[in-house]
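Repro:
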Amino acid sequence: MSDEPVVPETETNPAADAGPLEEAPSMEEQLQAALAERDQFKEKWTRALADQDNYRRRVQREMEEDRKYAALPLLKALLPAFDGLDRAVLAASQSKNAEELIQGVQLTIKQLETALNGFGAKSIPAAGQMFDPNVHEAISQIASAEHPPMTVLHDVERGYMLHDRIVRPSKVIVAKSE
């Protein structure tokens, strides 16, 4: 037997497994690394601010353009009606037939109503209805035995609604008791 101590095979010798010791970074190196990281974050932050500013300007420019040209679809829808009026006037001046002029103007009115309906605008019914101050504006009263008081006899100017909002109330003549 020998005098050397026996090391069991299951135990390891920590001194034998250790590689070369790594040195901890110095304070100067840590400072330089922190400054470099700070500079990277500052650059990213500056770019993010610039991107946000560019986005805000682009959205604002697009909104201004949308507002500027918002009436374009309505204008395109109304132009055929104006063309119809021009044709009606031309036809009436050449034929001197009032009936043709009336028919042309009625057709143009239908074109205008169709165009307005396409944008959610509709006329407010008035004649024969009971007076409603929310949608009618009485400009005159006429005594009538044939109609109950506060019945709309005639609309002088047609009123319009856009979806659920009054654009212009109907200007009407209302019946009153005799």
